[in-house]
Design a protein that fits this description.
The protein is built from no helices and eight strands. By secondary structure, it is an all-beta fold.
Length: 140
């Protein structure tokens, strides 16, 4: 007999077992041969919801890398290594309601560069990054 790696979506955290354990609640692993249950995370295109149990579909206007967690959004400013649902370029969300996605003005692609919630470009602020910084004015 030979030892084989657990497949993607499986893990084994005990020695001498004849089968692998399957990730639950729609979670998977990012590669084969995982040895911890904590390796099971939400797949790309989804995020771990507030219940900290189930994977939810990523909202339109956002992208959710493998392992995205809603709870990490509040901690992201202090630790940018955390994996969170990210806003796509051309969209905006507030930190206080990060899953409520707004489409930005298409004419100004630099205003909403995407990334973490409430990210605006060129020093702008406000809903859909429509407010210019001091010393500047919005022009057509």
């Amino acid at each position: 007999t030979t030892c084989t790696l657990c497949e993607k979506g499986e893990y084994q955290d005990e020695h001498g077992q004849t089968s692998c354990k399957t990730c639950s609640d729609g979670k998977t692993t990012d590669s084969r041969g995982m040895s911890k249950g904590t390796s099971c995370k939400c797949p790309a295109g989804s995020f771990l919801g507030l219940d900290n149990l189930t994977c939810q579909t990523c909202p339109a206007g956002m992208e959710c890398p493998f392992g995205s967690e809603y709870i990490n959004i509040a901690l992201y400013a202090a630790d940018s290594s955390l994996v969170i649902p990210l806003v796509k370029a051309g969209y905006f969300t507030h930190r206080s309601s990060p899953l409520s996605v707004y489409m930005c003005n298409e004419a100004d692609s630099n205003a909403c560069p995407g990334g973490a919630p409430e990210t605006c470009g060129n020093g702008r602020v406000g809903l859909i990054c429509e407010v210019c910084p001091e010393g500047q004015a919005l022009s057509n």
